[in-house]
Every structure is written in structure tokens, then in C-alpha cells.
Design a protein that fits this description.
The protein is α+β, with helices and mostly antiparallel strands. It is 38% helix and 21% strand. The strands form 3 sheets. An 8-stranded mixed beta sheet has the order 1-5-6-11-10-9-7-8, with helices on both faces. The chain has a 5-stranded mixed beta sheet with strand order 13-12-14-15-16, with helices on both faces. The radius of gyration is 27 Å and the shape is elongated.
């Protein structure tokens, strides 16, 4: 046993389980790459103020969950708790919005960190794939992102998820709703911290998961009743575009995402097979975030989908992903001459794109064949001194058990033919 263990609330991705996570990341990224989104990668930590301004000083993420620290140079940094603020910061810093081609469409994948009470589906270190469309106010963009996420999940074989949709209004109509909601909340039996949050951002109280708070919110005013005509028309266009694409969704007038920067369209992907941690992803429009972090007005929309949660959702549905074999050919040399010859052939196979592995260490035939079986290889190439003297190797089909003598110089061509 090692002296050290992974920190509480974190996990290691280890083969063969790690192959599922790679497959999920690839499936989520594939429709984005096919729709004009370019890959972006940002540092694992940023200035604390980036998240305080962007995510919101009243949010649990900033007040309770962020891993913040001070560097030796006195800088206040934080491990990134989400991706949108970092991606927008990087796009602004690189002046991508000035290149003349808006929206700037970006996708990313990485690890994020929040100090939360660990439980199944909720970790202190978690993985997400996200997408952002920066610099355009267009209902078609909102619809596009929802459709692409739906496409990604269905390509994995996931079926029992639901899309919840709402509008949070904009700077024209939300202030009126905010005042009505604050008046309602002040009449409830809430603790001092929650009342303080209601003064800063009352929508955050609607997102409070505590049962004693939720049961008091049944008669809370709904934002949809306060939307201005422009927001109503915008939201209706999003709904029409999604419907026309054959994507089912549910209107949820109480849906409020847990970050302060959302405006207008907001949505969440939930899976009822995951218990209390049912959200597998979500996002929305954030038209004012750029200005919050010191940039120009850049209306934008995006989402982040949880890789960990998606894997759990697949397991809940009993979906088995078709994962490519890590090894197609396994070479078993018997003797020093065979080691040199087969090692060279394994290198050739890899160069032409065939996944090949080699029996390393001084193993006998029995031990080496056990390794071949464990590798999952379709074919095993075995060679000893007698085989090489005859200029051949033994090619064994691990499915049928059939074994054939093949010329040493014909190995690569034969396997290319057999493996397609």
C-alpha cells in the first residue's frame, strides 16, 4: 500500500474505466468541432477577482466553495470553479472579438475544483466539457448549443435525460421582478445569511436546495410573468427553433442557474437516475459578463456538461459504450533474436496505425500468452528460433484460435489486410 491516497472528494481515472471518460469527452466535443467551435485551454487557476466579479460574490461557489490561495508574490489566485469566466477572459485578452468574425465559438475540456461535501456525483475535483459562443445576440445560437448538447448525449446512447428551459429576462425587465421577489422574500421566515443573499441577488434564493427554504417558495412570483416583450419574443424563438429540430424540452419557470451572470435563456440537463445530483449539465446566455470583468459589451451564450455525471448517467441506464480495443496485435518473442525481430515489427505496425504491444520482460510462453489474452488483442504474433530459421512467425487469431505461419516480411501487410 502507498503512504498517500487521493485527496478527499477526488478520484483517479485508471484503465480500463478511464476509457469511458475519454469516449464521453470525445462524444461531447465531436458535434462542437463539426459546428465551427475551436478548442481553447486556460490555466487551472486565475485571479480570485475574475470569479468574484463574474460568478458572483453572493454565490456559494465564491463564498464557500472556491479554493483560494495567496502566492509567494502576494497574488490572490483561485483554482477555477467553472469554465466560462476563464474562457471569456482568455478571449478578451487575445482580442479574439476584434478579429471581425463574431461570434467567437470556442470549446474546452478540463478539471474544475469546488470545496463541497463529497457524495456520489458531486466531487471536489470534477471534469467538464464546455462551449461558448461569444459576441452575438441571436436566439439561433442559444438553440444551436442546446441542440448540440442533445446530439452529443444521444450519440452516446443516453435517452432518459430531460432538458429544462427558462428565461431570466434582461436588464430592462429583471429589475422589476427583482424588487417583487425581494418584497416576497422579506416576508418569509429565512435566516440572516439567506436574507442578506436576497438583498444582493434574490434569484439565488430560488436556487436554494434546503427543503425548509423550498417549501416557503411555492407562491414566489415567477419571472416569466415579468418578462418584457423583447425577452418574451426572444425566448419564444429559442423554443420554436429547438422544437423544429425535434429536441424535446420542458418549460421550467422556476429554473435558476447558480451563477450570477446569466440573462435570458437558461437551461439544464437533468437525469432522474442520479438521485439528488440529477443535473448532468447546463448553461445559458450571459450578455453582461464581459462588461463585469472589464471588457466591452459582448452578448454570449454557453454551456458546460459534466463528464463524471454523464458517465454515471450512462451506468444508470445500463448503456455499454463501444470502446475501441487498446491493442490489436500482441507480439510474443521466444529468445533474443526473436525479441529484436518482433520489436522492429511492432514499431512498423504502430507506424501504419495498428495498435500493437509487446511482451516485455523475461517471460516464458505461458506467461506471455496470458498477457496477450489480458491485452484484448485480436491477433498474437509468436516467434521462436525455429520459426525465424524458416523465415516465418506464427500468427494466432485470438477469437477463433486459428494459427497460421506467415513470412516475417509479410507480417505488416497481412495484419493491415485482416484489420482493415
Amino acid at each position: 500500500m502507498s503512504t498517500f491516497k487521493a485527496p478527499k472528494g477526488t478520484y483517479d481515472l485508471i484503465p480500463p474505466e478511464s476509457a469511458k471518460f475519454l469516449a464521453v469527452r470525445e462524444a461531447i466535443a465531436a458535434p462542437l468541432r463539426n459546428s465551427g467551435y475551436g478548442y481553447i485551454e486556460t490555466p487551472g487557476f486565475e485571479n480570485v477577482e475574475l470569479f468574484a466579479r463574474g460568478v458572483g460574490e453572493s454565490t456559494d461557489i465564491v463564498t464557500k466553495e472556491m479554493y483560494a490561495f495567496e502566492t509567494k508574490g502576494g497574488d490572490r489566485l483561485a483554482l477555477r470553479p467553472e469554465g466560462t469566466a476563464s474562457v471569456l477572459r482568455a478571449a478578451l485578452e487575445a482580442n479574439l472579438h476584434k478579429a471581425g468574425n463574431l461570434p467567437v465559438k470556442l470549446w474546452y475540456s478540463g478539471s474544475y475544483y469546488r470545496y463541497e461535501r463529497p457524495q456520489k456525483g458531486r466531487y471536489r475535483h470534477f471534469s467538464q466539457v464546455g462551449a461558448e459562443a461569444i459576441g452575438a445576440e441571436d436566439a439561433a445560437l442559444d438553440a444551436e448549443l442546446i441542440i448540440l448538447a442533445d446530439q452529443a448525449y444521444r450519440s452516446l446512447g443516453l435517452r432518459n435525460f430531460r432538458i429544462l428551459l427558462n428565461s431570466l429576462g434582461d436588464k430592462e425587465c429583471r429589475p422589476v421582478y427583482r424588487e417583487a421577489l425581494q418584497t416576497f422574500l422579506r416576508g418569509l421566515d429565512l435566516d440572516e445569511e439567506t436574507l442578506r443573499r436576497a438583498d444582493i441577488n434574490p434569484l439565488r434564493v430560488l436556487d436554494d436546495k434546503r427543503p425548509d427554504v423550498q417549501k416557503q417558495l411555492g407562491d414566489a412570483p415567477l419571472l416569466r410573468d415579468y418578462l418584457c416583450d423583447a425577452c418574451k419574443a426572444y425566448h419564444e424563438e429559442v423554443r420554436e427553433l429547438i422544437t423544429a429540430a425535434g429536441v424535446a424540452f420542458e418549460d421550467d419557470p422556476k429554473l435558476v442557474r447558480g451563477l450570477d451572470y446569466y440573462t435570458r435563456t437558461t437551461f439544464e440537463f437533468v437525469h432522474d437516475g442520479l438521485g439528488s445530483q440529477s443535473a448532468v449539465g447546463g448553461g445559458g446566455r450571459y450578455d453582461g459578463l464581459s462588461e463585469m470583468i472589464g471588457g466591452p459589451a459582448l452578448p454570449s451564450v454557453g454551456w458546460a456538461l459534466g463528464v463524471d455525471r454523464t458517465v454515471l448517467a450512462l451506468e444508470a441506464e445500463g448503456v455499454e459504450l463501444e470502446l475501441p480495443s487498446t491493442t490489436s496485435v500482441f507480439a510474443v518473442p521466444l529468445g533474443e533474436d526473436a525479441r529484436r525481430v518482433l520489436f522492429a515489427k511492432v514499431t512498423e505496425l504502430r507506424k501504419v496505425g495498428i495498435a500493437a504491444d509487446f511482451s516485455y520482460g523475461a517471460k516464458g510462453l505461458k506467461g506471455a500468452m496470458k498477457n496477450a489474452n489480458r491485452s484484448g488483442a485480436r491477433y498474437t504474433v509468436v516467434a521462436g528460433e525455429r520459426d525465424l530459421a524458416e523465415g516465418v512467425v506464427q500468427l494466432k487469431d485470438m477469437e477463433s484460435g486459428e494459427q497460421t505461419a506467415i513470412g516475417v516480411n509479410e507480417i505488416v501487410a497481412e495484419l493491415e489486410s485482416r484489420l482493415g
